[in-house]
Design brief:
GO molecular function (chains A, B, C, D): N-acetyl-gamma-glutamyl-phosphate reductase activity; NAD binding; NADP+ binding
Number of helices of chain A: 14
CATH superfamily of the largest domain in chain A: NAD(P)-binding Rossmann-like Domain
Structural class of chain A: alpha/beta
Largest sheet of chain A: 7 strands, parallel
Pathway (chains A, B, C, D): Amino-acid biosynthesis; L-arginine biosynthesis; N(2)-acetyl-L-ornithine from L-glutamate: step 3/4
Oligomer: homotetramer
EC number (chains A, B, C, D): 1.2.1.38
Catalytic activity (chains A, B, C, D): N-acetyl-L-glutamate 5-semialdehyde + phosphate + NADP(+) = N-acetyl-L-glutamyl 5-phosphate + NADPH + H(+)
CATH topology of the largest domain in chain A: Rossmann fold
Strand content of chain A: 15-25%
Helix content of chain A: 25-40%
Radius of gyration of chain A: 21 Å
Protein name (chains A, B, C, D): Probable N-acetyl-gamma-glutamyl-phosphate reductase, chloroplastic
Largest interface: B-C, 65 and 64 residues
Number of domains of chain A: 2
Chain lengths: ~400, ~400, ~400, ~400
């Protein structure tokens, strides 16, 4: 213990410690951030008690889905966050290993029903519950908790829009007002102060990251933004549906929810905010025969006099200090293969044959930067840790 | 002999026989079209001499590639066309079975070098040679042969455009003038009279089939046609390239040849012809982790006052009598899975969120309607057979 | 109609019609076998009434599963069998196109509930219902019908064994006595006379085809037959199960039902019959990330003094006249890719490093030779048609 | 050299080293091992000089293949090992990012030719060169270097056997004598003292891990060990070969190198050593349509009186303290999905239907525990670091 704090203080005095990582201030008593020796090493807490190992106690609601499992995977190597509470109503009583055998090497609490959860024992919560059920549950959580919600339930500021797209009235109208939309690179300052972060959808993440800086800089027109998006199947979750069977998905592709996908209002909200006028996009998602990965191919009209070089330069500048957003070298094509399993977003800009137009391509892993990775990035910030903590897994290729 | 012609005459007299299949006239002596009994059954000629079995003798140049093999597969059940000559320079001397074991049940001639081929022994030729090498070879073929060329070498009417995109001067300028571009449904009458047909590329087929009728009817604008196309890997052929290894392709997607794909001039030629003015398209192909299949998602601006209903109705009308082009029921999404292994093109039209725009989706199997199937469809027509002959394989799903 | 019978008689008088196909005798009045003109061409009956088109009227029970769809695909090009009745209880009232859009080009009857089916309007039935439900239903069918049952319900002669493995008493004990087990190549003579054929399972087909001739000839020992089998996922059907989701299956493999798979008693029944003593096998199935295809890798001990050459020669001899079973050239490895979509079984024998042992590999498409293809092969025989009718589709590769 | 051995000896003197990351003290200047703050955090060295960042300088020979890239991926999060030298003859002059774009976030040296490498600047070397070329090169390396060779060139103790299977005489006979075969869990003590470790092949790793303890305990017979192994395609490397194209591999499986695979002598060497008599195995590898993953399904005869329970108990005991080898709960089937991207080996034992026999299943990721991960595990040990350092990535699922 003392050794660790010694290291810490040395490092901070020397001003060298977390070079590119923001300063950490811990006001909350629960967040002791001891940087205890064991927490500094990159390892799994298989041999010791769950409770004592790491300093921040994490509750995970909805642990039996893919995003829940992905958070557990990422936290395995997080030096400070330890999962001490896991809920999964339909699998209550089971071990996580029986639901996700790949997590067998980790020491994890048994799954319980959310109604049996004691939230006084955790410091923060990832909420991976389905859309529509989340507002009620989060409304009931202790206000001292930091919460990152991965569902869509708090993403839309306009509660009437929520009702329109999700077919039911918003259940937590008051709470909605304090929500911070957690597209990390674009809202970092607000996230620092947030108690409840609505984690963005995967499509909106891959689309807003390139478009927001370009709209903000007035480099592209607000009209006729056409987004042809492609996603791996894991985005559809682990529910047993005929449409997602291997035999139905492999070796073929198809569009779905053409013009009616629920991510549309979220995308338009983000673009309209920065454009300062209502932006209506053409958005066509396609289901790909792959587990992970998402590409948005975006066709835009450039503002008068603007070239793809200007767009490229803007994106380079916007993201030059970012660990997780990489604007590739000119001409290099982003491929989903190259971000698989990681929190990176790769993007690039290409000239179109049609004069005045440009093509923007961005790729992410839908389960990481498009869900659980960004959620962890946000919670790191909310709790005063370097945002890259536990997230520097490199992409798995091939 | 007599039995077969008897059948034919009975049938035609009754006017019922080949209901939707066009009249057959056989002027060429070589093309006897005997419809001998054995040729009428749906079977493989495994036990009898290749030469005697079927009445039209087919030469296949470049038999060791995927499109060559696919032609052999389709001809296995063609009652009139029998492959009697196969060339494959690098595999000369081998049996087709050793190159493509799945064709083992068929009786096929041994592969020879193209320079050793005796073209006086065949009635028609499918040319599956690589781009750039084909012009010279076809120039040297006997003029009595019917030829369908699957390469890009004769697709561009404008030979300077050929030179620009393929980096070498056209080697058969005179021949180019008599070439008929073989998008079957759109050029059927010309194909009937053709001696040399340039078989369309896969992307151009999937794109022109929906767009040509709409442009012809002035239902869509010529500007800002944006094509986001997705293809299976078999389109890249059987050449050993790192980029096409399983480990590089599976579980991920990527764009390639952004705005510079060689199918662009072919697409623009076709659209410009019908639009009667130069059409420049935005065309971005994507490589998908699947063997077969191609989808073009096309974003268009409609002409003033036109609705997606008008577009839909036009396509329904244009293709109502076609066996191989199906406009799906309203709202039904075409999926590549549903045309796999078959000569069908499925398409549909969808409203866009952006007013005045529409989304068109068309799917084909790139190796069948996008290559070998359409080639056979064309040769059937050139030789006076019902164009569906040997092509009514239903899609293989799942 | 009259035209059709004219043709038939012409053809049969000439005695030339189906060269390599066995003679056809039609005793049953229901089986008119008109060979109407339309049935002679290789095409889909899209434009005419279902009832009048083909001479044998087929009922398909359980049409909404993969094996049902596969039968429809195969029958599309069958000159004599036309589907006129289709049941699917949970999809009753829907069109087949809405359940399987790839079959859209065919004219098919609407799906009805089995209880609403009028079996007096059909000549033969394919039964693709789930295990356990089939005995009752088949018991209730008119005895004039020819029936091929693709479920496991009638495969086990020993009804106590059925009860042991399927956990419920046999519901049609009397009927079981007249059942013929339909491994076509091994039971052809019995199938000719059968009214009710139990179509073999996919694993038993791929295993018995190589092993039965070797056991019969006493070339291998009865002990220690070890079968490591690999199957594509389509064998698990279209039911929505978490375990068969794309994200659970792709990019990985796993064994299942180790030593307890329900195909075990069927395999052992077949081998014991020919061995004339109880054979107990080691059988481990593995689930592969592929839709179609099945490989059995079989490890055997040879009888004293026997070599792999003897085994090879025996298999060559056994199958030399078979269209659908191919013993490859020495050393050539059977690959599932090379039988995909077809009714072929490819096999071969290899020496083992351990003296006295041999390795046998056989591959099939589990949905064709392993299910619907063999079912059609059987019904062809039962109704006096050449067994290859409608089955000579060549494998789809790549 | 001295640095490394110093570390080692210090550590061993204390006798406490590896329980799971014991204290580290370092005397060598290069090897400052300060546990400097930056090195303790789990992050990528993107912004600082490669040389100064980490204390152990790693050379990577053959960096342009999959195993080379995998080592780079794993080292990204290794607190002590930094890659400072990378060779790739055919890609010399290129950046690693241009060869493997997924590694773009890391700061890496430029690729150079092996002949231009200055080995005095590194402390240890991973050698990922092709079989047959490696002996010469390693022979020429400074003797002070610690080396882990991932090729097969030093795996066979018997140099005549090497010549027999690889078709060329051994080029470094003297060196062979000091080689330690690096199956970590089974040779940990020898690896600690080794200078040159021959990293095991992927198949031999997945096979020896379960079989060696069982043979050592005399629980299984030496005869008739039958191994049906299944591998993902990445094991074949990144070389452009027709056989490994996506279109040739996807959606199908096949055996290869039946009884003649080059891993046979390595497997038999390991089993014979522990059996203390020559063991000859039946070994049939199969190529699976997946990138990563390997399963060995092993059929064994148990010693007299032994049950599968005994086998299970033996394996549990043998591996109870191991981080990377997990014997699953009884009845749980190991799946390759559940170790993907990780250094884990999952295994289990099942009863066979045939009395006296058992079935053993083990799964690994062929690129991690089967290659680069185990190589890192070995180098960690050779240099006195906790063997799990940098290796506790959890499996990526789905």
């Amino acid at each position: 213990m003392s050794s660790a704090s010694t290291i810490s203080s040395i490092c901070f005095e020397q001003g060298c410690w977390f070079k590119r990582e923001r300063m950490i201030r811990v006001s909350d008593k629960r967040v002791k951030r001891l940087a205890s020796p064991s927490s500094l090493s990159f390892r799994v807490s298989a041999n010791s008690s769950v409770k004592s190992e790491k300093d921040i106690r994490i509750g995970l609601l909805g642990a039996s889905g893919y995003t829940g499992a992905e958070i557990v995977r990422l936290l395995a190597n997080h030096p400070h966050f330890g999962v001490t509470l896991m809920t999964a109503d339909r699998k209550a009583g089971q071990s996580m290993e029986s639901v996700f055998p790949h997590l067998r090497a980790q020491k994890l609490p048994r799954l319980i029903s959310v109604k049996d959860a004691d939230f006084s024992t955790v410091d923060a919560v990832f909420c991976c519950l389905p859309h529509g059920t989340t507002q009620e549950i989060i409304k009931g959580l202790p206000t001292a908790l930091k919460i990152v919600d991965l569902s869509a339930d708090f993403r839309l500021r306009d509660i009437s829009e929520y009702e329109e797209w999700y077919g039911q009235p918003h259940q937590a109208v008051e709470l909605q007002k304090e929500v911070v939309y957690g597209l990390t690179e674009l809202s970092r300052e607000d996230i620092k102060k947030a108690r409840l972060v609505a984690n963005p959808g995967c499509y909106p993440t891959s689309i807003q990251l390139p478009l927001v800086p370009l709209l903000k800089a007035n480099l592209i027109k607000h009209e006729n933004i056409i987004i042809d998006a492609k996603s791996g199947v894991s985005g559809a979750g682990r529910g047993a549906k005929e449409a997602n069977l291997y035999s139905e998905i492999a070796e073929g592709i198809s569009s779905y929810g053409v013009t009616r996908h629920r991510h549309v209002p979220e995308i338009e909200q983000g673009l309209s905010d920065v454009a300062q006028s209502k932006v209506t996009v053409s958005f066509t998602p396609h289901l790909m025969p792959m587990i992970r990965g998402m590409q948005s191919t975006i066709y835009v009209e450039m503002a008068s006099g603007i070239t793809t070089k200007n767009l490229y330069q803007q994106l380079r500048t916007s993201y030059e200090d970012e660990e997780f957003v990489k604007v590739l070298d000119e001409g290099a094509v982003p491929r989903t293969h190259n971000v698989r399993g990681s929190n990176y977003c790769f993007m690039n800009v290409f000239p179109d044959r049609i004069p005045g137009r440009a093509i923007i391509i961005s790729v992410i892993d839908n389960l990481v930067k498009g869900a659980s990775g960004q959620a962890l990035q946000n919670l790191n910030i909310m709790l005063g840790f370097p945002e890259t903590t536990g997230l520097l897994h490199q992409p798995v290729f091939p």
